Amino acid sequence: MKELVAGAFLSSFFQVIFEKLASSNFTDYFHRSKLDDLVEELESTLDSINQVLDDAEIKQYQFPNVKKWLCDVKHAMYEADQLLDEIATDAPLKKLKAESQPSTSNNIVNFIPTLTNPFKSRIKELIKSLHSLVEQKDDLQLKNKTYAGNAVGFNSKPSGIEETTCLVDASGIYGRDGDKEEMIKTLLSSENGSSNQTPIISIVGLGGMGKTTFAKLVYNDNKIVEHFQLKAWVYVSESFDVVGLTKEIFKTFNSSAEGESNLNLLQLRLQQTLTGKKYLLVLDDIWNGNEESWEQLLLPFNHGSSGSKIIVTTRDKEITYVLKSTKLFHLQQLNKSDCWSLFVTHAFDGKNLDGYPHLEQIGMKIVDKCGGLPLGVKTLGQLLRRKFSEHEWMKILETDMWRLSDEDNNINPVLRLSYHNLPSNRKRCFGYCSIFPKGYGFDKGGLIKFWMAEGLLKCSVDDKSDEQLGNEIFSDLESISFFQKSVGYYPFVMHDLVNDLAKSVSGEFCMQIEGYRVEGIPERTRHIRLFVENLNCGDKLLESICECKGLRSLIVERYAATLISNNVQRGLFSRLTCLRMLSFRCHDLSKLVDEIGNLKLLRYLDLSDTKIKSLPDTICMLYNLQTLLLTWCDKLTELPSNFSKLINLQHLEIPHIKKMPKNIGKLNKLQSLTYFIVEEQNGSVLKELEKLNHLHGRINITGLGNVIDPADAAMANLKDKKYLEELLMKFYDKIEEMNDSIVERHVSVLEALQPNSNLKKLTIVNYNGNSFPNWLRGCDLPNLVSLNLVNCRLCSHLPPLGQFPLLKELCISTCPKLKVSIDKGDSMIELYLSNCGRILVNELPTSLKKFALLENRYVKFCEDQNLVNCTILEVLQFDLKGIVKRPSLDLHCYNSLDYLSITGWDSSSLPFSLHLFINLQHLRLFDCPQMESFPRGGLPSKLWKLGISNCPKLIGSREEWGLFQLNSLNWLIINDHKFENVESFPEENLLPPTLEFLEIRNCSKLRIMNNKGFLHLNSLYCLYIYNCPSLESLPEEGLLHLNSLHTLSIKNCPIIREKYKKEGGELWHTIRHIPYVRIE
């Protein structure tokens, strides 16, 4: 194996190629093909290029010719990888074809060369192109690098980065006042760390977010200067050397350490200096997370006076855990106002802004592009300083700088630095993320599967699985803020500037195409994400995509439900035979054509949420397929009979099919299998799970009522599936007739399905046994976090919850005989009780955050029981009907409450003030016929969603609710069949202008939607009107003025349906401007 240069983007690409060439399969193939000399020449040529990669990566930002050379190398490596993958697939594919054709000889099972080797000429062509690149590298004067770097850390750093000092100009800092006050409060506190360790406060954030500046601001504050007897500021960066750093700290604390190199003596002297003194130490720009080194470095610091503190700044959140930080400040982007102030300070250099009104609008647009990153705002402000020409400012607004081009990357040198410090395989994985649009949400598991499909997780010297390496890389990228937590449906997102960096890294090899833009798709493109409404044969766009013959990823993103016709598929599958990844997720696809079998290198296929009814047999020829996603393909009932030939399949997500494919147990590489069904007359199929011991995550096993012999259940071998975390076991889809033999069989089957002790979540549904298995009643599931029991009608006893020490979530639904006792000592966070009959609540756990009590007729609360002790509740759903003894609803101290739903309250008002719930965002009230008004003080100011159902008196007083003043209200639901004596809704100025979603349901007497009530709803996005049979008209003028309205959905409103139908409706013209109209 050739030694690699660490760090350069392409190094891991080369390592993958070298590993493939060195594998026994390839060496055997080349030897038999008498290609040994060619392979030696190929390796030698590749190594010659590999040795200059690090030098080329640095020089590409100064010399365009070097950048072009690197792009040519990248293209050549893609070609090499393609060739070797085809060679590796050739023999197994021939074997598969031979097995499917019994008359054909089966002796083609190894890498046996034919008389005319189909790959020899291509190897020669590859070597020829690589020789050309070797010659060019000499012309470009690229130098070999001989040092070895850290292949897994973040410790290599380009030169040219200056050390920081503690000095700062506080007048140019904006948006950190709140953080500063909190930090100073923390520093001035007398709090000490655990085990006498000096408290460590960590400042974490994206590169360029102002961590160092913020630390300086605090360090130089007068209160801090007066509070600490000793202060020291030390710049750390990547050069983490315990002796050198100890000497630097010692020196900074006004002590001389010249000539001293003995670590023991240095630390003793430092300890003497600090003993009895209250000190503050700032360690700026930490990259190294080696726990042993930090423990050694920090030894002398435990002898200072009480109140001493250490501040560290880092981009890597993982380092804060190594340091056992007592407080974390995660700096966020600046808001628009603070960004503008910062920009004005640097751009106008003290001049009066009033003199340049023509530049203000342009400047604000420039600031918006910076995404709240102080470094970007400051850099651009400095770039425009004393340039007051509109032309100059427009050049900046419209420049390619926003793509972070290599020729002008001043906008974000720190992000570029973060990227350069990544190991090579991290760089490639990050570069692949350029396929995501800005603001695009993604999840960890999905992205890791993308990386697997592209072969980015093969560059590992350890025995780690692809998933393990992928998780490590993802964590590394998250820890330096390249990936950030999202508030949307998907948990992660990239900051816009980070996204731009990824695009600059990937260059011409990755494209995003929106609409029907066909120009500028380079033939070298390897990854395409496509946003189109339609994809038709003969379109220039389709032709242009098919010209990218080396394309490896094609993601057809959902713009609308694009029709993927059979002819379009044939065109793609016959020409894009290099595809590793293909996604038609959420599109109008009812059939997958046979030509899918042409994609012999395909590793990832996503057909989720399509109308597909069956898969062709040729899909079983996709030898390399690792991931097949078929979630929500509700019309797909079974898989091909030869499905077990997909022997490299690792992830299979399938819908609720009616039968499992034959011999699925042969797919012993499976790591995820979301669904497994035991169909009638085939209870023994459960045995197929026996050898699938690599299953991870979650599995749903249904149809267990069809298992006749408990021995078949035992052979499923669930006890050895140590990686499974979640298990759902369902016996029937519907309630079946019960007799003694069925009850006894259910008990035996469930007993035989004992899971591994590592299981964290267990759900049992429609179980007709009269007792739970011994493994649930005993102590066999010590790691259980969540227990869900649904429709277990005959079971009467649940073991004491205390024997599940980690249990956080308990859900019991429709278990009428089950006796359960809830005690204060239980450490539950979520408790859901629905339609249960024998629940005794002694005292609710104070740790409870989510509590739902629904449709329970005989739940009993002990004397003096109330909810007041559950002060950290975030979600409360309470159905008060039928409770034997109602707990007190004194909820005045619920500052954490986010969601409140109450059903069956029988008084005129609630017994608590809603406006005191300062964080309440969701409020739902059901079946409260006597409720007349909200409590005094009105609704909470942060309320986002309000739903009122079957509360006629309360709805009658709606004009007293004060909705118009609720600027945060986004969603309103009115649902009441007793909505009587009302001719129109809503009244003028009843609803706030912030409202985006309005739902009106089951209002039988409602006749008119009031035009004046809609005129000011400029944010309304969706209007739903369901089951309003008396409704005669919609607010014609009001809807015409609502440019924001996107969706109008009407159901079971017969008069409206007739008047507003698309064909022949007299009033259709008043709503046809709305993009999405659905009237049923």
UniProtKB/TrEMBL annotation:
InterPro entries: Apaf_helical, Leu-rich_rpt, LRR_dom_sf, LRR_R13L1-DRL21, NB-ARC, P-loop_NTPase, Rx_N, WH-like_DNA-bd_sf. Residues 435-502 form the Disease resistance protein winged helix domain. Residues 686-815 form the R13L1/DRL21-like LRR repeat region domain. GO terms for biological process: defense response; response to other organism. Residues 32-59 form a coiled coil. The keyword ATP-binding applies. It holds the Pfam family NB-ARC. Keywords: ATP-binding, Coiled coil, Leucine-rich repeat, Nucleotide-binding, Plant defense, Repeat. Residues 10-100 form the Disease resistance N-terminal domain. Residues 179-351 form the NB-ARC domain. One of its GO terms (molecular function) is ADP binding. This is NB-ARC domain-containing protein. It comes from Trifolium subterraneum. The lineage of its organism: Eukaryota, Viridiplantae, Streptophyta, Embryophyta, Tracheophyta.
